């Protein structure tokens, strides 16, 4: 249930297990098994392509608060739509003339993900309202963990996915009291799960490693 798959068998079986043993696989068996894997991979790719072709839809593999994994349909926003939201929020800030520009109100306004509290609390604050996962999707919020130099964490809105391990983000207060757009962020985690990133800077190089939780998504309207 819930989209998770259980492994059949539940244990390891060696030769002779069960009532008659296990026959060694023939060359044809191995070839057929390889073909099955290729067909399954192609079907998965076709299903993913079909879903991404739907307006505003994307698939994201994530986990619930209970730790169960699932594939969910989440909102996907075009780069132009993100940019329009950034411009609208920048204009609002200009008119309001606040004493300081913060990342949280900016990310909330641009993404439409309505979570309160410091950036470092957003991952837990997403609760059951907002899906979470490790797959970058435009319009999602990349959530940074608390560190010694950044005790309140940080949040940034994904404006474009360049590759599975490289994105652009729009954010506020990464550069103090400023809005920055199209900042490149790269995933350098060993598990390829966006748990550690480097952020591009004005000199077109990448700074130190920052620990991250992953991405918070806005649910797709049909979900």
From TrEMBL:
InterPro entries: CHAP_dom (IPR007921), Papain-like_cys_pep_sf (IPR038765)
Pfam families, A to Z: CHAP (PF05257)
Composition bias, Gly residues: 1-21
Region Disordered, residue ranges: 1-35
Source organism superkingdom: Bacteria
Transmembrane feature ranges: none
UniProt-listed PROSITE patterns: CHAP
All residue ranges annotated as the Peptidase C51 domain in the record: 78-198
Entry protein name: CHAP domain-containing protein
Organism name: Cereibacter changlensis JA139
